[in-house]
Amino acid sequence: MPRALYIHWPFCAKKCPYCDFNSHVRGSVDIAAWNLALIADMRAEAAVAQADGPVPLTSIFFGGGTPSLMPPALVAALLAEAERLWGFDPAIEITLEANPSSVEAANFAALAGAGINRVSLGVQSLDDAELRFLGRLHGADEALAALDTAQAHFERVSFDLIYALPGHTPELWHERLTRALGFGTGHLSLYQLTIEPGTRFASDVRRGRLTPLDDDAAAELFDITQALTGAAGLPAYETSNHARPGEQSRHNLVYWRYQDYAGIGPGAHGRRGGVATVRHKKPENFLDAVARQGNGICEARGLAAREQAAEALLMGLRLTEGVDLASLSDRFGLPHEGLVEEKALGRLRDLGLMWADGARIGVAPAGRGLLDALLAEVVADTLVIA
Hints:
Blueprint: E1 4-9, H1 31-49, E2 57-64, H2 72-86, E3 88-98, H3 102-105, H4 108-114, E4 118-124, H5 128-134, H6 140-153, E5 156-163, H7 170-181, E6 187-192, H8 200-206, H9 215-231, E7 236-238, E8 241-243, H10 250-256, E9 262-264, E10 269-272, E11 275-279, H11 283-293, E12 297-302, H12 305-316, E13 323-324, H13 325-332, H14 342-350, E14 354-357, E15 360-363, H15 371-378
Parallel strand pairs: 1-2, 1-9, 2-3, 3-4, 4-5, 5-6
Antiparallel strand pairs: 6-8, 7-8, 10-11, 11-12, 13-15, 14-15
């Protein structure tokens, strides 16, 4: 049964380059209608998910367009309904995703009063030129002011940075990361720039306007990241995420440990009892679906055991704790030896890129920078569904 809840808020404060919804301006949103729709969607999900009895929620995550501009009264209403439907674990983590703008930071005190106890800030860089390159709408000083405000109002704060940008040298990244660690947050998400097909970056690379760092240079920055965060007491617990002990993102751990979670709101995904759920993405379609069928689901697809096992391995091997093959075998009714390519695992262990401790396997520190290549080798071909 789901122990985590994801709530997707689709609206931005204004037209922005990061989403493709038609409605962006907060002032044009019928808050009362969305309150009713999201609560109806939540009730429908809880009714299905709790068929075998209620399980208290350990985490709630507000994500989407600009959830930090949600009216605090709406946040409070959704949290009250979630607690009524599921109950809350005493140590529940309630996270809000936020852009580090002054407008959103002005809402932090009220959101904390509504029940948010953790915020994740999309800082991305501490340099104005890099922020412009990344297409962000905030500046570095504004981001730092928002970070200061967040730390004043929330029990736990995380922020993200993107590195391995064109021109990043080991010396520059060492200085930037050292500065970031000095802000004293208990969690950092540190992502290497990736060039995804179909993006502006991919187009710029193709036209010769952008030259990404080569693999060796990026690997050196990755090694610096591991060394500095480890020395600061925020070791990696996932490939790109670092935290002090006890401050790991409980919500994201649900994903990486392949546990069930409920997703409500436009475009939200969920996993429950071997079924993958997807909500209608467009707000108007979502509202129509809730009015018509009592929930916003556009697809609920049963996942074969092999597909679930593959997903569990692909997610779980991102964690430094690794995965327990015996547990996965029991969970999905598949033979232990059919989960991984044993010869590949043995070879990668001999190279010091992976480790095994009884039934538990994982990626060794030396292999973390090669994660995607390792996963392609070690996850059994019989699990991969074309």
